[in-house]
Amino acid sequence: MGTARRLHYRYDEYLSALEVSGVKLEYCDGEIYAMAGGTPTHADLAGSMIRLLGNALVGRCRVSSSDLKVRIEATD
16-53: buried (b, 16+ CB within 10 Å) or exposed (e) per residue? Predict the structure, then answer.
């Protein structure tokens, strides 16, 4: 007999799981997903885009990497 998978988590449960997780996690609509790591090519491309966007938008916008957690409370 297998273990039942829980289908809905609260945001505070996600934050607790994130503290002890060895992998990157994403929270969406009550579900917690493990995120895969990127390839070196992907990391290089992302780094270049952050640099280019940051230089182009200096003083107008903030450019961050995908490691930044963002929560939209209206949609949780």
Answer: eeeeeeeeeeebeeeebeeeeeeeeeeeeeeeeeeeee
